[in-house]
């Protein structure tokens, strides 16, 4: 193969843990997924009472959700699109952070059902976090981009299992294939499963669905240098932008919507369906330079490929 061609250059470039032929690269490059998969995954994560305890006690999520959201996104994209050294460094960084996250379960309901202590090193909790990201990516891609066939889902879940191994999640808690993963989700979300929206989770969900915009100024390049940007953004009422989260809410399991106390009437369903249909119709007309995440475009350039599908 000629190393001067894009395919030849891809062979000698560092594609990281996955690479351009992976489903992970293909699915997660779509920026529109951030509006669907991101909020949905967060709401699923904190629906586990012990994860809600960790988020509540070890972050400033209530006052500055954007810092955590941008850090989580940056971490996920580094694992997926970074070169091997960057991805492995991120794995080590996450392990060091998780080693510091533990404590008492303060929510009375959560303490009664899940015990008195939690730890981010618990493999069951680590698996649930990964599961929410995998499932939310599939569900959001189906809704906002195009339906995924069974074969592509199988490949994507196989890659998730490889990531679980990189992250050090005990293989005993990682479902062995897609069918086992689907059964795991049904069990976790079922009537006898551990996923129960606690009072702490409901409180955190209010911040997820109506995040204060003021702190966004510090998290956005360029805005931090504009005098008064935080004050101006902070004055925008949640009703002006909360509807952007309705497609993500529509992708939640019905029970979790009810447990979170989320209003889901005809106006919310109509707007969610309209936004979902509009995004899906317009996406094929938008060039990759606009629709793909910058980390995905940079990774394609790194391995010698253009940002064309």
Explain what the structure shows:
This protein has 309 residues and is an all-alpha fold. The chain has 18 helices and two strands. The chain has helices at 6-12, 23-28, 33-46, 49-57, 65-81, 84-98, 108-114, 123-144, 150-166, 178-189, 199-209, 216-219, 229-234, 246-250, 254-260, 266-282, 288-291, 294-302; strands at residues 102-104, 117-119. Helix 3 packs antiparallel against helix 8, helix 5 (65-81) packs across helix 6 and helix 8 (123-144) runs antiparallel to helix 9.
Task: Map the helices and strands.
Elements: H1 6-12, H2 23-28, H3 33-46, H4 49-57, H5 65-81, H6 84-98, E1 102-104, H7 108-114, E2 117-119, H8 123-144, H9 150-166, H10 178-189, H11 199-209, H12 216-219, H13 229-234, H14 246-250, H15 254-260, H16 266-282, H17 288-291, H18 294-302
Antiparallel strand pairs: 1-2
Helix pairs in contact: 3-8, 3-11, 5-6, 8-9
């Amino acid at each position: 193969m000629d190393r001067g061609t894009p395919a030849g250059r891809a062979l000698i470039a560092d594609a990281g843990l996955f690479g351009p032929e992976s489903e992970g690269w293909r699915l997660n490059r779509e920026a529109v997924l951030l509006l669907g998969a991101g909020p949905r995954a967060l709401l699923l994560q904190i629906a586990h009472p012990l994860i809600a305890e960790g988020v509540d006690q070890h972050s400033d999520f209530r006052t500055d959700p954007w810092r955590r959201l941008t850090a989580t996104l940056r971490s996920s994209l580094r694992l997926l699109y970074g070169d091997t050294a960057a991805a492995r460094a991120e794995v080590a960084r996450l392990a060091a952070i998780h080693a510091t996250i533990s404590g008492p379960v303060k929510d009375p309901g959560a303490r009664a059902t899940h015990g008195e202590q939690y730890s981010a090193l618990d493999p069951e909790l680590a698996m649930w976090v990964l599961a929410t990201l995998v499932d939310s990516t599939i569900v959001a891609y189906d809704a906002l981009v195009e339906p995924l066939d069974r074969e592509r889902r199988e490949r994507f879940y196989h890659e998730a299992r490889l990531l679980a191994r990189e992250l050090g999640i005990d293989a005993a808690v990682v479902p062995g294939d897609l069918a086992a993963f689907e059964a795991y989700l049904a069990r976790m979300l079922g009537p006898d499963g551990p996923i129960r929206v606690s009072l702490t989770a409901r409180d955190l969900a209010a911040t997820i669905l109506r995040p204060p915009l003021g702190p966004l100024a510090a998290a956005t390049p360029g805005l931090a240098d504009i005098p008064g940007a935080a004050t101006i953004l902070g004055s925008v009422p949640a009703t002006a932008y909360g509807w952007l989260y309705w497609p993500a809410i529509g992708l939640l399991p019905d029970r979790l919507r009810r447990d979170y106390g989320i209003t889901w009437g005809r106006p919310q369903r109509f707007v969610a369906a309209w936004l979902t249909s509009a995004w899906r119709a317009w996406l094929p007309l938008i060039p990759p330079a606009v629709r793909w995440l910058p980390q995905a475009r940079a990774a394609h350039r790194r391995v010698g490929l253009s940002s064309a599908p």
